[in-house]
Design a protein that fits this description.
By secondary structure, the protein is α/β, with parallel strands linked by helices. It has five helices and seven strands. Helix 2 runs parallel beside helix 3 and helix 4 crosses helix 5. The longest helix has 17 residues.
């Protein structure tokens, strides 16, 4: 039985089962395909597991490469039509398997030092893709601001060890509603703890 009809509440829905997430996303896409005003579906993830060196722009670890492939597999049938990343290696490498499989050229929105400005720039890029399904690969400190810039709710801080979160926003222009679905993909990250106790900044 489907939960609560996805009302216009901004409270996030959390699904740990990929099957439930897939079925729900399919229902949303079918609904939107028949609607007069198609919704924009935005899938927001943090980049996959990163290395520690070089400090400024590290690549993915072997586990991160595996996670990037898992993301491509999880979204293979989601109808992703556009990809947005930052200029940093870990963001681009996370998106690459899906982008190559779907023959998409990612749009780059520079990270920069101003997180709020970056989030607004990503949101503006998403809104130019009205009616499409968009993958956004961000960073630990940008995922939450991006979701809020798109009209979604505040989410808990993303801890440095958290890589498996997958957030899906449905932006429905017909009734100005934003729906948020929280799922996961790939190898599960350790349980979230608040406040985050890791020593490193989750970029």
């Amino acid at each position: 039985m489907m939960p609560a009809r996805l009302s216009s509440s901004l409270s996030p829905m959390r699904f740990r089962s990929p099957l439930v997430f897939g079925l729900l996303l399919g229902v949303l896409c079918l609904r939107d395909a028949s609607a007069q005003h198609a919704s924009t579906v935005v899938i927001v993830v943090r980049h996959a597991d990163k290395d520690t060196i070089p400090k400024d722009d590290p690549p993915l670890t072997p586990a991160g490469v595996t996670r990037a492939k898992a993301l491509a597999a999880a979204l293979a049938d989601a109808g992703v039509e556009a990809v947005i990343t930052t200029e940093l290696i870990r963001s681009r490498a996370t998106a690459r398997p899906l982008a190559e499989a779907q023959r998409l050229t990612p749009t780059t929105v520079p990270h920069g030092a101003d997180i709020a400005r970056h989030a607004q720039a990503v949101a503006a890029a998403v809104r130019r893709l009205h009616g499409k399904t968009v993958l956004v690969v961000g960073h630990g400190e940008t995922v939450g601001p991006i979701i809020q810039a798109l009209g979604g709710p505040a989410i808990p801080e993303v801890c440095a060890y958290e890589y498996s979160n997958l957030y899906t926003l449905v932006l429905d222009e017909s009734d100005k509603a934003v729906r948020l679905i929280h799922s996961s993909y790939g190898a599960p990250s350790p349980p979230h703890a608040s406040p985050c106790t890791a020593r490193m900044t989750p970029r």
